[in-house]
TrEMBL record, chain A:
Catalysed reactions listed for this entry: [PQQ precursor protein] + S-adenosyl-L-methionine = E-Y cross-linked-[PQQ precursor protein] + 5'-deoxyadenosine + L-methionine + H(+)
Function, in words: Catalyzes the cross-linking of a glutamate residue and a tyrosine residue in the PqqA protein as part of the biosynthesis of pyrroloquinoline quinone (PQQ).
Main enzyme class: oxidoreductase
InterPro entries xrefs: 4Fe4S-binding_SPASM_dom (IPR023885), Aldolase_TIM (IPR013785), Elp3/MiaA/NifB-like_rSAM (IPR006638), MoaA_NifB_PqqE_Fe-S-bd_CS (IPR000385), PQQ_synth_PqqE_bac (IPR011843), PqqE-like (IPR017200), Radical_SAM_PqqE_MftC-like (IPR050377), rSAM (IPR007197)
Protein name as annotated: PqqA peptide cyclase
CDD domains: Radical_SAM (cd01335), SPASM_PqqE (cd21119)
Domain Radical SAM core: 10-230
Cofactor note: Binds 1 [4Fe-4S] cluster. The cluster is coordinated with 3 cysteines and an exchangeable S-adenosyl-L-methionine.
Cofactor entry: [4Fe-4S] cluster
UniProt organism field: Azospirillum brasilense
Gene Ontology biological process terms in this record: molybdopterin cofactor biosynthetic process; pyrroloquinoline quinone biosynthetic process
Pathway it works in: Cofactor biosynthesis; pyrroloquinoline quinone biosynthesis
EC identifiers of the protein: 1.21.98.4
UniProtKB/TrEMBL annotation, chain B:
GO molecular function: quinone binding
Quaternary structure (record): Monomer. Interacts with PqqE.
Pfam families: PqqD
Protein name, UniProt field: Pyrroloquinoline quinone biosynthesis protein D
Metabolic or biological pathway: Cofactor biosynthesis; pyrroloquinoline quinone biosynthesis
Amino acid sequence: MTVCGATTGLEPPLALLAELTHRCPLRCAYCSNPLALDPASRELDTAAWCRVLDEAADLGIIQVHFSGGEPTARKDLEALIAHATTAGLYANLITSAVLLDRARLERLRDAGLQHVQIGFQDTVPAKAELISGFPGGQPKKLEVARAVTDVGMALTVNAIVQRHNIDRVDDFIDMALELKAGRIEIANVQYYGWALKNRAALMPTREQLIRMDERVRARLPELKGRLVVDYVVPDYYAKRPKACMGGWGRKFLNVTPSGSVLPCHAAETIPGMAFDRVTERPLADIWANSAAFQRYRGTDWMPQPCRSCDQKEIDWGGCRCQALALTGSADNTDPVCDLSEHHALLGDIAATDGGTAEAPITYRSFSL
Amino acid sequence: MTDGVSEEDRVRLAPGVMLRQDRVRGHWQLLGPERVLILDEVALEVVRAVTTKPPATVGTAIAALAAQFDAPREEIAADVLELLGDMITKGFLTR
């Protein structure tokens, strides 16, 4: 077994995305979970997750993001947060908030939870319900968001932006300020999983994006020192790809509800990938040696134009799942890059899907 | 809100922020929501000086740092104010 460190030049990972469950009361059209969801019967149990958390801390991971699905659907969330905290991990909770109340927030805080990120589908309740397929969500989210800061934890408003709410980006920022959030994520939908299925219903027009971008940039000066803004520009209108996950197998790892270890949460969409499981192999060994992590790690795998590009250790070739979804092969340069021979596809898709007047929404469905 | 930190201000760690030594890498860091700030030796001492309990004013912290490093107060004051302003902007500290 290769050990992380000076001998290999491989740095230890920084963050673990712990997808505790795929169960979720919401049915969001933009969900990034895979179309084939893990049933509850295949979820790792408490003891298995505790071992993963210990191994993660030993490996050098400093932050754990408890996510899903809806992680609060797990009754052992308090125990897992307490275990993570004892292991020295910083605990974040990524939640829809609809299953939470003040009493449980206090228990999660007492277990060591530092930060709660709540996803908001819109600022207008009826419009939020159109995207989430969940009636009554918005008032509940607002109530829980207030309780988060009230009991002394940090709050992030995650504004998930798509065609139906993109014109209200100012309202999202005002909502974050009103809720006393320390941070807002303005996250344009990334088109994987269910979101890819619903791309025609969600993709904004170029004009909408330009207006949003102007509004966000106009607000940034007044927000300095009050609200941290993490702003994800939508890929389909970009010229250079993102260093997806900070580069494949460089900073992050993701453990699925059933225990598969992925370099990114959409990696299961790539054909021919074999993923190791935390129940079968130690996390440090998987990080260093798993075929899935080796496959696109570093620059050796790169085709042209990446291979001879001076940006190759900045964007690491972009996103593998996007290359797959749009060009048919995950081995290609991310077509978001305007040096990619497939780049023109992006403009075509954005024009076609962004211009689709009323495409129907396929809600995430969870059949066990 | 005015830009910049003054010596009369008191600052504290923002909600959800903790000061911790990385047990694998060895360095000290501020951990916050979805982010990390690695502290060098000087930044660590500045954070410690302003997050005393009860919290000192920034001016008091600067005086303490001047004594600790045996450096002229005016030389370090500007650097400390700039560093704290940057940490507030990044959401690690709050007034």
